[in-house]
Amino acid sequence: GVEKPLVGLINIGTEPGKGRDQEKEVYKLLEEDPSINFYGNVEPKDMLTTECDILVTDGFSGNLVMKTMEGTAKAVGSLLKQEIKKSFRSKIGALFMKKSLNNFKSTLNSEEVGGAVIFGIDGTVVKAHGNSSAYAFSKAIELCMKAVKGNVVETMKEKLSVLEDE
After folding, report:
1. For the segment 109-166, what is each residue's pLDDT rounded down to a tens digit?
2. Distance CA 87, CA 102 (A)
3. Whole-number Å distance between alpha carbons of 68 and 141
4. Which one of 27, 62, 93, 145 has the largest count of C-beta atoms within 10 Å of its C-beta?
5. pLDDT tens for residues 63-87?
6. pTM of the model
7. Which of 4, 8, 2, 5 is nearest to 44 (CA)?
């Protein structure tokens, strides 16, 4: 639904020459395509704060990054809970901040997204966690519907066919 989405490439540094040969090649392809609003490299530490609408990566690296972020979010939540429970003052403060804390929690909750869209096959696939709840699975279905309604696969085929012709 974004008219001209900003596309970033997940990489180990922001400089254009960073990464493995694979990332360098993808960077060049994204940069050279005038129809792609390419931002450049995005380090994983900036994934939650980047202005990019789409982040591109290979499946292995993406899975590592996502699982690391999920684990970090869970650990931060657990540490915050421990701190809140330490004093009466903290508990009272948490009551006043309950809505903000719940919003913060849902922002970092992987179940709110449901899964990751996988491209490169002739169809739309959303990979969800094996331990996804019914709620997370429903979010994965919503994500898949958005990709289908947005003609993502067809658009990618068009882009790739242009590259093949060159």
Report:
1. 778 888 878 776 788 888 887 888 899 889 989 988 988 898 888 887 887 777 666 6
2. 20
3. 24
4. 27
5. 899 889 888 988 999 999 999 999 9
6. 0.76
7. 8
